[in-house]
Inverse folding.
């Protein structure tokens, strides 16, 4: 069962990691810094890592809050009994919403991404990045804008962690968030090393946007069904 739980954590983290939102915000951050310092490639590396570190730290903090919230709820018997069923249902709904965006992007009047009305503010923050310290602080702030499109799998995972002790939770939470930011680290590296350009990364994201939603959606639906069936505890 421990092995299955670890597989579930990795699956949820992977569903989060392929979410188009985080790839979009990192691309915006790197564009902002390259526009200011077109010849300083080392700046791309430092800014990319600082921006990613800001998001990583905030998401780890969010995780601790969510887990403690679930621990508080499960002190009441009714929540303890229904927690996994609710999490399973949430997983299926979120997964179906992502799969919907593969077949009909923006169908039903919404997309599982950063709300459109938030995007100008988020882009404005990112455009102001001028230093490594600024990128870190912006990463902390931008994590708030990412929550609507990336927090779903994280909420499910934190619910699964609820019965565990803090010493068991911390390494699993670190693992989840490392997997979550891996694409951001990878993109920063390959752009720094000159293997690709930001425009190519942005183009790849746009071309594969629906596929990324499909992959994320399938993972969430499978885990949601497993939770409802009692296969994940």
């Amino acid at each position: 069962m421990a092995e299955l739980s670890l597989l579930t954590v990795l699956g949820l983290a992977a569903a989060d990691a392929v979410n188009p939102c985080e790839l979009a915000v990192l691309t915006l951050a790197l564009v902002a810094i390259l526009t200011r310092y077109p010849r300083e490639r080392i700046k791309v590396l430092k800014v990319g890592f600082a921006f990613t570190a800001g998001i990583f730290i905030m998401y780890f903090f969010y995780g601790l809050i969510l887990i403690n919230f679930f621990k508080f709820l499960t002190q009441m018997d009714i929540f303890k009994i229904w927690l996994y069923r609710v999490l399973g249902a949430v997983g299926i709904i979120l997964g179906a919403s992502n799969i919907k965006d593969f077949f009909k992007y923006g169908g039903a009047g919404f997309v599982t991404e950063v709300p459109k009305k938030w995007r100008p503010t988020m882009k404005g923050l990112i455009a102001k990045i001028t230093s490594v310290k600024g990128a870190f602080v912006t990463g902390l702030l931008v994590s708030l804008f990412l929550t609507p499109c990336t927090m779903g799998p994280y909420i499910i995972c934190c619910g699964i962690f609820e019965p565990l002790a803090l010493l068991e939770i911390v390494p699993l939470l670190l693992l989840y968030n490392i997997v979550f930011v891996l694409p951001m680290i990878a993109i920063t590296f390959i752009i720094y090393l000159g293997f690709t350009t930001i425009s190519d990364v942005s183009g790849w994201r746009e071309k594969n946007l629906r596929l990324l939603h499909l992959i994320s959606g399938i993972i969430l639906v499978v885990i949601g069904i497993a939770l409802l069936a009692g296969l994940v505890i």
Residues 2-228 form one domain. Residues 94 and 152 are 7 Å apart (CA to CA). The chain has one domain: 2-228. The two ends are 8 Å apart (CA to CA).
